Amino acid sequence: MDYKELADLIYPDIKDASYYEEKYPERNLPEGAMVVRFAPSPTGFVHIGGIFTSVICSKLAKQTGGVFMLRIEDTDQKREVENGVNGIIDALKKFNLVPDEGMIDENTSKGAYGPYKQSQRKEIYQAFAKKLIAEKRAYPCFCKQEDIDKMREKQESAKIRPGYYGEWATCRNLGLDEIERRIKNGEEYIIRLRSLGNPEKKIKHHDVIKGNIDFPENDQDIVIIKSDGLPTYHFAHAVDDHLMRTTHVIRGDEWLSSLPVHLELFNALGVKPPKYAHIAPIMKEEDGAKRKLSKRKDPEAAVEYYAKEGIPAEAAKEYLLNIANSNFEGWRRQNKNAPIDEFELQLNKMSVSGALFDMVKLLDISKSVISRLTKEEVYDYAINYANEYDEDLKNLLEKDKEYTLKVLGIERGNEKPRKDIAKWSDLKDNIEYMYDDRFFSKNREYVYQNINDKEEIQNIITEYIDNYFDISDDKQTWFNKIKDLAEKFGYAREVKEYKQNPEKFKGHVGDVSTVIRIALTGRANTPDMYEIMQVLGKESVIKRLKCAILN
Ligand code: GLU
């Protein structure tokens, strides 16, 4: 028996690897096109780091006329959960990340390089394992778990580098006759790579993100096919990324240490490895120390968090691009209203170490993203959010849609749009006072600021209603009248004027307009008061102001 016959004995019905080489030819894409993939395991939890990888992959594919694939890595079936694939697909959808190829639901996929679920590619991996066996680059290993455990103990007590390699790799030297006999006897086995590496030698590698790295060659005879016939991550990665014609493997840097194994696998398969870009994880600061954003400790690590909080997907995406390329911020400053697609992402500008997750910055970006929306868009987003998470907000928004649109339209669409909404979960509190039924249903306590003498306040409001307020005034006239009102009560018409001679005045126009603002809305901070009055209408304004006088 020779190695070719051994390969046939192990995989009698498996096709030749060349069949798959032909079935999945080189892609016919423009020069520089990047073929990339997001390759999660369906474990039931989608980490924001996965969205980070996908944002990068999808952006690069789009930018270069390439392909973004979603490949499901479900070869570790112990870790799989029901509906895990749908969970991943839904999460991507929430962030408008739609792969060009790959799984589109639990069992369906699109694209000519599938199947895109590893458990459906068993025969493909076996075809390549068969090729390696025939070429003496892989062999069956009959060692039982207890043999491996014993070996490890020995290595540990002798302080020897652990693993299945060199003289420790007992099955690599079994004779063909013995192998044949044991297989025919029905003994269980797995398939291992026959490593030709020498750890005394260094591999020089260039990672697109991490730069040049040297590391020792691999000499471990790693498992490529497990006893259930499915491949290990390492082998599946090499076979899949070769056959799917991936140009760039973009993945978490926890895989960097496996790179020597992966490079050897590509070498054993006789194919060119893809380029690698290892992304540093998103970090969190805790007690002055940095650690990875954790699925157990940090709610913002979970993709659902963003939906529940009502942080728009665009904002989260934009924030992730900020983390990805530090020049994004400057680009945004110069292109205030441009869609993020116009930004050119560069892999080699990604930071080598992990960026800190910064919620304040994310919410700040979110405020800007929301400020750029039209009132109709705000309405649609808010309704979608409310439908899922806040019945009361839904009622508020829907009761009089036309009026709601006016409320949402305040300070929108102009040079400096309002930037006071960071997430949809804040919206109710942000607009509720604009609805008379809600406004008057609360027993409110008016907290005035600089002017707090009750009589003075009542006089100012009364005088405003009686002699100054006219809903048909244009903005300039309206504002001049507030100044007139201020002057009448002994307050400076301009802040500057007051600052020059504070002793001459009781205060300034801002103090007077704050009185009216608080009387009108119950709040010291609101968007433009003129616009608010226009939306509320004459009757509501007067009713509110009178109510404040009585309070
Ligand atoms: N299934 C691996 C993971 O979830 C994928 C790593 C890769 O992108 O190759 O970590």
Instruction: From the 3D structure, determine the CATH topology of the largest domain.
Output: Rossmann fold
- Low-pLDDT sequence parts: none
Structural class computed from helices and strand pairing: alpha/beta
Mean pLDDT equals 95
| Portion in beta strands | 5-15%
Distance between the termini: 101 Å
Major beta sheet, strand line-up: 1-2-3-4
**What is the strand tally?**
15
Q: Report helical residue fraction.
A: 40-55%
> Which homologous superfamily in CATH is the superfamily of the largest domain?
HUPs
**How many structural domains in the coordinates?**
4
Using the coordinates above, name the CATH class of the largest domain: Alpha Beta
CATH architecture of the largest domain: 3-Layer(aba) Sandwich
| Total helical elements | 24
Q: Identify the bound ligands.
A: glutamic acid
The largest sheet, given as strand count, sense and whether it forms a barrel, is: 4 strands, mixed
